[in-house]
Design goal:
3 helices, 9 strands
Length: about 200
């Protein structure tokens, strides 16, 4: 395994550390991980990531002198370029680089909170403690691959530390929003009410 990189603070998106996702293009393997958005101002992190990617590439592909190499997958992407090309649409990509960090076994990575306390990512009931949109630092490394005609470098997730809460990313259904849609005041519990309590115009 290649050089370990401890990132500066970034933002997590498509966070899947509590429940895996089947990889349709990877023999049906289950993967865990996150898309990690890195501010372009985090120059030390970007430099370390680029160096680690190059090192991993050169260990497997002797002739690689610089990156990105033609015909090879390069894991670090430019959010502004992807937005301009229409490959991404979320404003969160503006001013950021991003990469997808993955693990294929739950015991391959750990998750901790801001105070260093473990968040048991093997228990789905803890999923609300760390969600897409939160800020975090990652422990990652890089591994080159040459498989079924595909070549490049992938990012391997070794650990994540949530640093602070962020605004949720993606489509999040909130009870208070639904209550507002129906013209009722959101309650703290599931107090019953009758249809006459709701003013609906059908």
């Amino acid at each position: 395994m290649g050089k370990i990189v401890l990132t500066e603070e970034g933002r997590v998106s498509y966070l899947r550390v509590f429940e895996g996702q089947e990889q349709t293009n990877d023999d049906g393997n289950i993967s865990y991980g996150t898309t990690f958005l890195i501010p372009k101002e985090a120059e030390d992190t970007i430099k370390s990531i680029r160096a680690a990617i190059l090192e991993a590439s050169q260990e497997k592909f002797d002739k690689i002198k610089s990156l990105p190499a033609v015909g090879h997958w390069y894991p670090l992407r430019d959010g502004d370029e992807e937005l301009e090309a229409g490959n991404k649409t979320g404003k969160e990509y503006e001013g950021h680089y991003f990469l997808s960090a993955k693990a294929y076994e739950l015991n391959q990575f750990a998750v901790i909170g801001p105070n260093g306390a473990a968040i048991d990512h093997k228990e789905a009931e803890n999923a609300d403690q760390f969600v897409s949109g939160d800020y975090a630092r990652l422990k990652i490394t890089f591994k080159a691959f040459d498989r079924k005609g595909n070549k490049g470098v992938r990012c391997v997730l070794k650990g994540a530390m949530k640093t602070r809460k962020g605004d949720p990313l993606g489509s999040v259904a909130r009870p208070e929003d639904l209550a507002n849609d129906f013209g009722v005041q959101a309650a703290a519990d599931n107090t019953e009410f009758s249809a006459e309590d709701v003013d609906l115009e059908l």
